[in-house]
Amino acid sequence: MKLSHLIYVGSLLLTVAACKKEEHTSLYGAGSVPASLTSTSVRNLPGAAEITYSLPHDNAILYVKAEYERQPGNKQEMKASYYANKLVVDGFGDTLEHAIKLYVVNRSEQVSEPVTVTVKPLTPPVTLVYRSLKIGEDFGGLRISFENDAKADVAIHVLTPDEKGVLSQAHVQYTTLEEGLFTLRGYDSTARRFTFYVTDRFGNHSDTLSNVYRPLYEKLLDKLKFRKVQLATDIADDWGLPMENLWNGSYVGFWDMFHTQTKPFPQWFTFDMGLTVKLSRITMWQRQTPVNDWAYNANNPKELEIYGSNNPDPDGGWNNWTKLVEHKVVKPSGLPLGQLTADDIAAAARGEEMTIPLDKQGVRYLRVKVIHTFTDAACNIAEVSIWGQP
To answer: Is the pLDDT at 170 greater than 50, yes or no?
Structure first.
């Protein structure tokens, strides 16, 4: 046989060998089917259950797998490392009994015979949060409080008819807080229907509450009536950036702000709104230049209190002042100073809204007590807007 023929035949054999189906086998060999779990126990939780078990003595075990249905036909799978002796099955929207099949899986992906346990979840968070809702009429809308003991990831939906009378979503409050309060604004004082329900990330849905509410009347106060008041203990302005910049209608210019002297904290300042008002809310804007490099930084307030009075002490003392609200500025991203996300920039542009409790009496004078700024040097605030019922 010629050399060229030998080379051709050899190449053909190599090609055929290369085209054979590749086979994968476990590095651990076939092994044996793992034994099943033993000594299982269940602790039922709101919308969930914790299952504790004992693993068989087998060094080849990789994980434990749970198979179950949150709702009929909605198959789920949960895995737990062999380092653990428990797992949590969650997402249930009822308090019915559910069968959970538990499997031991080894490093060769061999699966044990199932062990079936029955769980009976406690009342799910969507129902608990829904039942906790407290809804009251507020200035320009509603005030909604809730409790969420499980700190579950839920959404509180608020709907109301639009201008065409079609029921539409007005607001969604996403939360994992144990308790909270939020407001709905922008409505006149005519009666209208609002509808509420709660959902979670698993697709569970609470009952629906619908009722007619009449928001309280409020108006944006006329800033042309605001006047600076310099009491004996008040902080003075500095850098040629007077208090009047707080109500000039703008907050994005590089020097468009009120700037105090560099003094120890706390420090405070006072102004006259020009009339006695039962306040509903106050919004303050941080210094935030067009490139947003000052938000949540430098001399912007981090913690403050607002007081009201109708008869301030001439000596600058705190007699005749009533605390209206206290507020902490929270940076949404939680990033260090000088680092901002799109959410941070958007939150700064919306301003820091402070809701005044309904039981507070009408006042004419406001005193802002700044406890801390982001660097505790001086304080600067770009703008303030105030709503209430004159």
So the answer is: yes
Q: How many C-beta atoms surround the C-beta of residue 293 within 10 A? A: 13
* Same fold: 38-119 with 219-389: no
Element (H, E) at 307: strand 301-309
Here the contacts of 55-61 (C-beta below 8 Å, separation 24 or greater) are: 55/82, 55/85, 55/104, 56/104, 58/34, 58/104, 58/106, 60/28, 60/31, 60/34, 60/106, 60/107, 60/108, 61/34, 61/104, 61/105, 61/106, 61/107
- For the stretch 227-245, pLDDT in tens is 999 999 999 999 999 999 9
Please tell me the CATH code under which domain 219-389 is placed: 2.60.120.260
Reply yes or no: is the peptide bond before residue 266 cis, omega within 30 of 0: yes
What's the whole-model pTM score?
Answer: 0.76
Here the tokens at position 384 are 């303030």
CATH number of 38-119, picked from 2.60.120.560, 2.60.40.10, 1.25.40.10, 1.20.1250.20: 2.60.40.10
